Amino acid sequence: MQVLDRLDYERIGIRIRKQRELLRLTQKELANRMKISKPFLNEIEMGKKCFSVNYLAEFCSVLKLPANYILYGSGRFSEKHEALFGLLRGCSEEKIILAEKILKIFLKSHEQQSLEKVTSD
């Protein structure tokens, strides 16, 4: 039980709430997807209740987060990366593929501009 004693349920709840909000889900929508009551989800988000491993797996699936991040806040990226990922999380596979192509074109274009600037200096 030592590991469980070190878990910060308030921080866990905050991470769940922030991801829910990034995905533009209401508490009711997430609770419905999780098959739990809205009051129970609210208590989890407030850090007042813990949850089973089965619910952890469900949170991971629905919120598209690794368990390590939900529990400990590690294994993630910077806030700027998170904002970009947040935009993509709600997208269909088709939109994600298109976004990837656009991003590659954008990055390649900026690499060219950087090279041109260096060679002209």
Characterization of the model:
- The chain has 121 residues and is mainly alpha-helical.
- The protein has 2 domains: 2-77, 434 Repressor (Amino-terminal Domain); 91-121.
- Helices cover 74% and strands 0% of the residues.
- It contains 8 helices and no strands.
- The protein has helices at residues 2-5, 9-22, 27-34, 38-45, 53-63, 67-72, 79-89, 93-120.
- The termini are far apart.
- The relative contact order is 0.10.
- The model has no long low-confidence stretch (mean pLDDT 84).
- It comes from Eubacterium limosum.
- This is Helix-turn-helix transcriptional regulator.
- Keywords: DNA-binding.
TL;DR?
The chain is mostly helical.
How do the helices and strands line up, and which of them pair or pack?
Elements: H1 2-5, H2 9-22, H3 27-34, H4 38-45, H5 53-63, H6 67-72, H7 79-89, H8 93-120
Helix pairs in contact: 3-4
Q: Would you list the SSEs in sequence order as H and E?
A: HHHHHHHH
Question: Percent of residues in beta strands?
Answer: under 5%
The number of domains is 2
What's the β-strand tally?
0
Question: Which descriptors apply to this entry?
Answer:
121 residues; mainly alpha; 434 Repressor (Amino-terminal Domain); 74% helix; elongated
